[in-house]
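Open question from group meeting: does this chain pack into something compact, or does most of it stay loose? Before anyone orders reagents, we agreed to write out a predicted structure and look at it together. Recording both the input and the output here so the notebook holds the full record.
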Amino acid sequence: MLGAAQRLLLEETLCQFSVERVAREAGVSKATIYRWWPNKSAIAIEAFRERLQAETKTPPAITATEALRRQLEGLARILRGELGQVVRQLVSASQQDPKLAKLFHDEVVIPRRKVLKEMLARGVRSGEFRTDLSLDSMIDMTFGTLYMRLLFQHLPIGGDLIDDAIRLLQARRA
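Structure tokens returned:
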């Protein structure tokens, strides 16, 4: 069902996305979908979150700097691709739909920030990252720039931006 939802999210707009279409694509009844998810927003968010997690998974036995680089590169790849358009639609729809906004916040934003905060804290502890910035500020500065470029499309997503973000966070070496 999540695979069907992921395919449909890439093929159509969020407005066109429906429980009926997911059920038909997955070969199950609408009742089966509603047993797992209360509405189309819930299945859309979970399908997106599952894909995001799969695309940004990093092995634990690497430096915090390398883990951050892989996270940024994975997110940049997602945002440049078809899933980037899904993100734009989810963010846009969230502005008008408080339930969707809360679901997106609780199911995507908060869990992602937790992972990123742990990664950055590890880098601060190891001396790789600066100690004079809050972890929340580090997250907003590094990942917020990618979302800014996605939403406003004023510059390409990725490239030098990732190198610059990492340099800004790295601890100064004497």
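Observations to bring back to the group:
The chain has nine helices and no strands.
The chain has a mean pLDDT of 91.
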